[in-house]
Amino acid sequence: MRSYLPIIAVLDLGLGVALFAFSMDLIGLGLTVILTGTMPLIAQLMSSAMGREKFSVVKFLGALVIVMAIVLVVL
To answer: What is the pTM of this model?
Structure first.
């Protein structure tokens, strides 16, 4: 049985980099960095929604502080 994992990994990396470069061109570097910086917050919300982690106000506020710091630096 063949594994498609190497093919998927190469496509994921190539497509991810291409989409990231396209987004920088389309919406600008500043907004792209802000949206990329929100990934920990989004991951935490998704993890809580899927039941993998318990929601914690402290964790949420920590992620929010990081996102706001990125916004302040970029703007």
So the answer is: 0.57
Q: Per residue of the chain (75 residues), what is the pLDDT tens digit?
A: 578 888 888 888 889 889 888 888 898 888 888 888 888 778 888 888 888 888 788 888 887 888 788 778 877
Give the span between the Cα atoms of 21 and 38, in whole angstroms: 17
Residue by residue, DSSP assigns 40-72 as HHHHHHHHHHTTSS---HHHHHHHHHHHHHHHH
Looking at this protein, which amino acid is placed at residue 54?
Answer: K
